C-alpha cells in the first residue's frame, strides 16, 4: 500500500476522533477536575487504540458513528490507566507524552479523581440515548469492561507490581503483558468489528490478530525502554530496568526480543489473511507500525 494513502486515512480518522473526544470530555467539571481530565487525554499520544477500533470497523464495513464512540471510550480507559499507573503508589513516573504526569501537574488526589472520572465517562460515551442500538451498546460495554478489569488491564498491573525483583519465565511474562497491555488492544479491534457484521471465522481471526499485535506492542515497548532516550519516548527511559522489573529484554535478551516481535507481526498478518475480509489494509499497516515504531 502507498504510505500516503494510509497517512490520509489516519489524518481523516484522527481529525474526527479528536473533535469527538474534545466535545465529550467536559471542561466544566467541578473544582478543576475537567482541566485535569482534558490534560490527561487530549494531550496527544499514538492513538493506536482508537485507530484499531476504526480500522476494525472499516474491515467489516460497520457503523462509523458507533465506532467513533468506541474509539473515544477506549482512549479514555487507556488514559485513565496511565494516570493511575504513573502515580507514586504504582510506577511513580513524572513524565508522560513529553510533559509532566497528571499527579505532578495537578496533585495526587486530583489525578486519582481524574482517572476515576475518565473511566466512568468511557461507558457514558458508549451508551447514548439514541444513535446506537441497546444491543450494540451492551456488547461494546462488555468488551471494554472485560478488557479493563481483573481479567485484563487491572489484573496485569497487579501482576506487574507483584513481580518487581522477581524472575519470571517467558510464560508468566507473556500472561502479565497480555493482561496489562494486550487485551485492551485486542478489545479495540473487536469493538470496531462489533459495529458491523462478522462471521465466526472472521471474528476469531480478528481476535487472533488483536492478541498478536497486543503482545507485540509490549515486547517493542520493552525494547524501546532500553534503546531510546526519554526525549524520543516521551516518558522516562530505562525505568523498568531501574525498578528491577522483568521484561522481554531481561528474559530473552535484546536480539531475541526483537525476533519475537517480528514473529508476532507475522502471526497478525496471517490472521488477517484467513479472516476472509476484503478490507483489512489499515489493520495490516497498523501491525507493521506497532513493530517498526521508535517511541
TrEMBL record:
Coiled-coil ranges per UniProt: none
GO terms (BP aspect): terpenoid biosynthetic process
Cofactor names: Mg(2+)
Domain of life: Bacteria
Name this protein carries in UniProt: Farnesyl diphosphate synthase
GO MF term (any one): prenyltransferase activity
Keywords: Isoprene biosynthesis, Magnesium, Metal-binding, Transferase
Record keyword Transferase present: yes
Chaperone keyword on record: no
GO cellular component: cytoplasm
SUPFAM superfamilies xref list: Terpenoid synthases (SSF48576)
Family membership noted in the UniProt record: Belongs to the FPP/GGPP synthase family.
Pfam families: polyprenyl_synt (PF00348)
Amino acid at each position: 500500500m502507498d504510505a500516503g494513502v494510509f497517512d490520509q486515512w489516519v489524518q481523516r480518522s484522527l481529525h474526527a476522533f479528536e473533535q469527538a473526544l474534545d466535545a465529550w470530555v467536559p471542561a466544566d467539571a467541578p473544582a478543576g477536575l475537567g482541566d485535569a481530565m482534558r490534560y490527561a487525554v487530549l494531550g496527544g499520544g499514538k492513538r493506536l487504540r482508537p485507530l484499531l477500533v476504526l480500522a476494525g470497523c472499516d474491515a467489516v464495513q460497520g457503523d462509523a458513528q458507533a465506532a467513533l464512540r468506541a474509539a473515544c471510550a477506549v482512549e479514555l480507559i487507556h488514559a485513565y490507566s496511565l494516570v493511575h499507573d504513573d502515580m507514586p503508589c504504582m510506577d511513580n513516573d513524572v513524565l508522560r507524552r513529553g510533559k509532566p504526569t497528571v499527579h505532578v501537574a495537578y496533585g495526587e488526589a486530583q489525578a486519582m479523581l481524574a482517572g476515576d472520572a475518565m473511566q466512568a465517562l468511557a461507558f457514558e460515551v458508549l451508551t447514548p440515548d439514541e444513535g446506537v442500538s441497546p444491543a450494540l451498546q451492551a456488547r461494546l460495554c462488555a468488551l471494554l469492561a472485560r478488557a479493563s478489569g481483573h481479567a485484563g488491564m487491572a489484573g496485569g498491573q497487579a501482576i506487574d507490581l507483584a513481580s518487581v525483583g522477581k524472575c519470571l519465565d517467558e510464560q508468566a511474562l507473556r500472561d502479565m503483558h497480555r493482561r496489562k497491555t494486550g487485551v485492551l488492544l485486542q478489545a479495540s479491534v473487536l469493538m470496531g468489528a462489533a459495529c458491523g457484521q462478522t462471521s465466526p471465522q472472521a471474528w476469531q481471526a480478528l481476535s487472533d490478530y488483536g492478541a498478536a499485535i497486543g503482545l507485540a506492542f509490549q515486547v517493542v515497548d520493552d525494547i524501546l525502554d532500553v534503546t531510546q532516550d526519554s526525549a524520543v519516548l516521551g516518558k522516562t527511559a530505562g525505568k523498568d530496568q531501574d525498578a528491577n522489573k522483568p521484561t522481554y529484554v531481561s528474559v530473552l535478551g535484546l536480539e531475541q526480543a526483537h525476533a519475537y516481535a517480528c514473529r508476532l507481526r507475522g502471526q497478525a498478518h496471517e490472521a488477517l489473511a484467513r479472516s476472509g475480509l476484503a478490507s483489512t489494509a489499515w489493520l495490516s499497516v497498523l501491525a507493521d507500525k506497532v513493530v517498526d515504531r521508535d517511541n
